Amino acid sequence: MSLRKRIFRTYLILIILVLVYLLLSLFLSSFRLRMERDKNDILEVKTIWGEMLVFMNETVYNWNDGKTFDSFIEDSRLFEEKLEQLTGPRTAGWWYGAEIRRYLDNLYAVWKMAKLNIHRIVETRSSPEFLAVESLLIQEPGLQRLYHIYIRFIEDGRGRDEIYAYALKEYIDGVEFFPVYSSTVNYVFIVILDKVESLYGRISIIQNSLSIVFFGLFLFSFVLISSHFTDSISRPITQLNIKLNEFIGRTVERERLYHNDEVAMLEASADDLIEHYTHLARLAGRLSRGHIETSLLSLPRQGVVGKALKEVASYLKGLAKTADWIRDGKYGAQVKEKSEQDVLARSFNIMSGEIAEKISTLRSMFEAIDEGIILADCEGRILEANQKFLSLMEVGDPGELDSIDIFTLIIPEEEIQGQIRKGLPVYDLYCTIFNRKNERIPVKVNVRPLNTASDGGNSVMMLISNESLRVRMKREQETLAAQALEAELRALRAQINPHFFFNTLNTIAHLIETDSTTAVGVVEKLAGMFRYTLLSTKHKTVRLHEELLHVREFLAIEKIRHGSRLEADFIIEQAVEESGIPPMLLQPIVENSIKHGADKNGIIRIMLKACREQDDLCIDISDAGDSEVDIAGLLDNSRTGLQNVNQRLMTLYRKHLEFIRRNTGGLMVRIRVPLDGEGTG
Question: What is this structure's pTM?
Answer without folding.
Answer: 0.33
